[in-house]
Each structure stands twice: as structure tokens, then as C-alpha cells.
Amino acid sequence: MKKNFAPVTRLVPDLHKAKEISMKLSEKTLAGTAEASNFLTDFADVLLFITRTVKETFSRNFEFREFLLQCFQIGNKTLPLISVTGIIMGLVLTIQSRPSLAKFGADAMLPGMVAVSLIREMGPVITALICAGKIGSGMGAELGSMKVTEQIEAMEVSSTNPMRFLVVTRVLAATLMIPILILYADALGIIGSWIGANIKGDVTFTLFFSQAFSHIDFIDFVPAFIKSIFFGAVIGLVGCYKGYNAGRGTESVGIAANSAVVLASLLVLIVDVIAVQITDLL
Amino acid sequence: MIDPQTDAITPAKTNSINRVVEIKNLRKSFGGQEVLKDLSLQLFNGENLVVLGKSGSGKSVLIKCIVGLLNPEGGTINVFGENVGTLNPDDLSELRKKIGFLFQSGALYDSMTVKQNLEFPLRRIRKVLTKAERDEKIKEVLENVGLADAINKMPSQLSGGMRKRISLARTIVVDPLIMLYDEPTTGLDPVTSDEISLLINKIQKKYKTASIIITHDIECARQTANRIIMLQDGEVYLEGNLERFEKSKDPLIKSFFK
Ligand SMILES: Nc1ncnc2c1ncn2[C@@H]1O[C@H](COP(=O)(O)OP(=O)(O)OP(=O)(O)O)[C@@H](O)[C@H]1O
Ligand SMILES: [Mg+2]
User: Which domains, from first to last, does chain B contain?
Assistant: First the structure.
């Protein structure tokens, strides 16, 4: 395992160099345009952060207890919110599509259509956006306040690598838990859809369920699941990056939490666009 | 070995084995603001060195450089003969196991109870201890700081002074060889301050610890100091024993030792 990652490890000094060069470059060529130079150094910083996280993930001494704790907390914090959103998603989608389908006499298509749009798009994206708000900002605020109150430094002097203890565990927990939460939201969405279908009409759940799943193919399911994993990783990485690199005053905690939500939501949508393009090619 | 009771230790009397920390020509600045310029000092085996200085004179920065939390721009720092600036992460982590660091802000882990806060360094630094031994040790240090009944509280439930004392307990629980105290008695009432000063002396005697004690509390300095250093403008302004400071005619020193 460790051997495979040697290239990444070797990349780190190069990235440091790249950052220095980009800083010099931005000083010289973009003098005055602070934003552009900020963008370049930020970008190098982010790359460095990601490579360090990956490197630490595959180092020995994985902090398993903290990882489990984070998994539990992600589930615990978001479960009620995601349950409600999931049901509402299915319900609203059903109630709104029913009239247009009825116009073509395609009522029977309803369960299948709702299931496909839930699993392919609505479920992953809406759940991920909610997680970006709840988990991304939580991580930004938590790590940010730990940074500001010297708790991260206290870990370092206790011979604990804070990247390994705080960042790796949180990023992995988000990467594992968010896809699971998305599947859970999909399932509740279908239940919500059944409730919606029953408001005007009478379908048994088993019939509704089998109708819904007869329309779902491998191609609906697998790309959406892979996309979900990326959503999780993006949310974890952005939350930790913003928190870990918070400034020195208390106001930095708020800034870290806020910018974590904004960036994570934006990146979720960007990943989604890319994923849709790739799935389209298949 | 130096007797903690003797006064100032002149470098002539000592050899390099006695120096647990040796700092030469240290320089550190933040964005153009020079905080430490050309600072040199030694910490000898078993002594309590008190560091005085105005707010913002770089005392906290100094001890953060010693444990490698900040990277100085110039100069060398040797701790137990190892150059902190050139150590790789694993060796630095090993070296840090021998150093206790009390943060000025306390830096208690907000998400953990008092017990978990104390367990954190114990699990990582004293790996061989069994659970029973850990619990015993935690109980002992909490009694030392007079807060045995706070063991299951969260940091947010503690007062400022209590947090400081828990933080001190967390630092001493692993029996470090060098202690760096950043204002151990600030914000404490006179009775508790005295107790903390006594505790610092007790640790020094019991474990033969060498300590740097940053403080504004002259009473604490009187009780604990074997030697005192005054920082001013990023350099050592005056160095000597307590007597030398008490008798000084210098206005800056006098304002500290009123
Ligand atoms: N990480 C940092 N980034 C930027 N400036 C810093 C940093 N740490 C310290 N400084 C600056 O260095 C100077 C010295 O700070 P330091 O915390 O060492 O003071 P101090 O002597 O401990 O003061 P006090 O007695 O108030 O604690 C201050 O002017 C502070 O603004
Ligand atoms: Mg300070």
C-alpha cells in the first residue's frame, strides 16, 4: 500500500516548490490584482492539502476510534433533516408530475419516472447540498475554532498528527457516510412518492414499489452512487480545508464555516455537471 | 545536576551536558514585524527559569519555537542536543513526548470531557500504561490541581481558572522532562496561585524537571524562580537571580517588582 503511494509522497516537496513559484509569479505578473494572486496561491494550497490528506490516509496509525465517532456524528446530526427532505422530495415530485403524465394517459409511468429522477439526480444532489450545509459548515466551524483556540497545536505537542487525527478521519467519514445517507434519502423519497400517489388514487405499496423498480437499470444506479462518493469526499475536504486553515481571530471561525458551505455547495454542483457529462458518454 | 536551591547558575560553572535547551541567535518575525531578534538563552538541567516581559514581547512565540510549532527564520534551538529545526516529523514527535507545554489559552479539547482531555496525551505518549494505571494517574493529577470532582465535566462547564488548572493537569500527566508553562497563574485567585506555584516546585523536585515559566505574576516568580530572564525588544534585557532583579534600579524592572 505504502509503496504505491510513493509518487504522491514525492510530489509533496514539488508542490511546495510549485506554490513558491506561483507566489513569485503572481507577485511579478499580477502585481496589484490581489484576487488573482490569492487564487493561485489558494489553488496550490488546496492541492497541497489534498495530497497531504491522501498521504496521511495511507500512513500507519489510522485513528479508527475517531473515524467511527465521526461516522456516528455525521449520521446522528443529519438523519432527521434528511428523512424529512427525502419524503418531501418524493411527495412533491409525484404530486407535480401526476397532471402532466395524466394528460398523456401515462399514469402508470408515474412510479418509474419518479424513482428514476430521484435516484439519478434529485436524491444525490439535494441530499449532498443539505450535507454541505450541515456537515461542511460543522467541520469548518469545529476545526476553525480548534485552530483559533490552539487546540490543534495542543494535539501536535501531544505527539499527534492533527492531519491524521482530525482531517483524514473526517474526510473518510464523509466519503463513506454521505453516499449511505443519499441511498437512505432515495428510499424515503420512494416512500414519499407512494404517499403522494395515494392522495389521489389507491396503490398498494408492493405494487408501487415493483413498478418503480422495474424502470431502474444498472445505468441509473451505479453512476449516481459513484457520484455520491465524490460528493462526500468534496464536502469533507472543503469543510476540513476551510477549518484547518482558519485565521487567528474568533471571527475566522464564522468565515471558515460560511465559506465552507458556499464552496462545498458550488463544488457539489460542479461535480454533478461533470458526472452527468461522463454518464452521457456511456 | 544543579541544586534547585542555589541561585543563579553562571555558565562558567556548567558544561554542555547540563543544558537541556540551548537557543542561539533566534530570530522570528511575522509579516515584517520582528518579534524575536538575536535571542540566546539556555535552560539548565533541573532549574526553574522564569521569563518576564511586557505583553507582546514574544514570550509565547519563544516557547512555541522550542517545541517546533513555529519555524524561526534564523538561529538554532537545541533540545537534549537535537536541533529542532532540522528534525524530521517522526523525530520531532518523539522529542515532543519529553516536553510538556501549557498553553496560555489552556487549549482544552472542547469536544471531550475533562477525563478524555487527560487521557488524550496519556494514550499517545505513555502507551504502555494499562487502563487502571491511566485512571490512577488521572485521579492523582486532578487532585494535585484541586479539581478531582470535575473529572466528568465538559470544558464549557468550567470557569476560566478551572480550565487553566485542568490544562495544567493535562500537561503534567505524562511526566515530561521539560515543562514550558505559559502564564500558569494568570486569572487565578491568590490562594490557588500559591498552590500552583507550590505544585510547580513539587514537580521540579519530584521529577527533576527543567522548566521555563512565563509569568506576569511576581509572587509566582518569587516562589518558583531559580533564575530570571527579562525579554524586551526581542532580546534578553536582563538575566540573573531574584535578588538581582529585586535590587535593580532600572525603571522597567522596577515596574515589574514594585
Ligand atoms: N501566529 C502569529 N501570526 C502573526 N503574528 C503573531 C503570531 N503569534 C504571535 N504574533 C505576534 O507576535 C507578537 C508577540 O506575541 P506573543 O504571543 O509571543 O506575546 P507575549 O509576550 O506572549 O504576550 P502576552 O504576555 O500578552 O501573552 C505579538 O505582536 C503578536 O501579534
Ligand atoms: Mg503570551
Answer: 1-95+189-258 (3.40.50.300), 99-175 (no CATH)
- Grid cell at residue B169: 493537569
Task: Give pLDDT tens digits for A106-160.
Answer: 888 888 889 999 999 999 999 999 999 999 999 999 999 999 999 999 999 999 9
Q: How many CB pairs under 8 A join A and B?
A: 48
DSSP assignment letter at B187: T
Give the Cα separation of A136 and A240 in Å (integer). Answer: 8
CA B239 / ligand 2 centre spacing (Å): 19
Neighbour tally for B88: CB within 10 Å: 8
**Straight-line distance from the first to the last Cα atom of chain A, in angstroms, rounded to the nearest whole number:** 31
* Rounded Cα gap, residues A8 and A18, in angstroms: 14
B19: amino acid identity, one letter: R
Report the complex ipTM. 0.88
CA-based nearest distance B155→chain A, Å: 12
**Statement: the pTM of the whole predicted model exceeds 0.80:** yes
A214-270: pLDDT as tens digits: 888 877 889 999 999 999 999 999 999 999 999 888 899 999 999 999 999 999 999
H or E element at residue B50: strand B48-53
> Dihedrals φ, ψ of A160, to 5°?
-120, 130
User: B12 near B22, Cβ under 8 Å?
Assistant: no
- Distance between CA atoms of residues B62 and B196, nearest Å: 22
Q: In what order do the strands lie in the sheet with B82-83?
A: B33-44, B19-30, B74-79, B82-83
User: Nearest C-alpha to atom 28 of ligand 1 is from which residue?
Assistant: B56
Determine the Cα–Cα distance for residues B108 and B164; give it in Å rounded to an integer: 9
Q: Domain-by-domain residue ranges, chain A?
A: 75-281
CA dist B145 → B104, B171, B195, B196, B233 (Å): 17, 12, 8, 7, 35
Residue B18 burial (CB count, 10 A)? 18
3-state helix, strand, coil split of chain A in percent (to 5) is 85, 0, 15
Q: Which among B89, B105, B121 has CB closest to A150?
A: B105
Residue B87 in grid coordinates: 528534525
Element (DSSP H or E) covering residue B19: strand B19-30
- Minimal CA–CA distance to B101: which of B201, B174, B158? B174
Within 8 A of A161 by CB-CB distance, chain B residues are: 89, 93
Q: Which of B26, B28, B35 to mutate to test the pocket of ligand 1 (most atoms within 8 A of CB)?
A: B35
How many Å from the N-terminal Cα to the C-terminal Cα in chain B?
Answer: 33
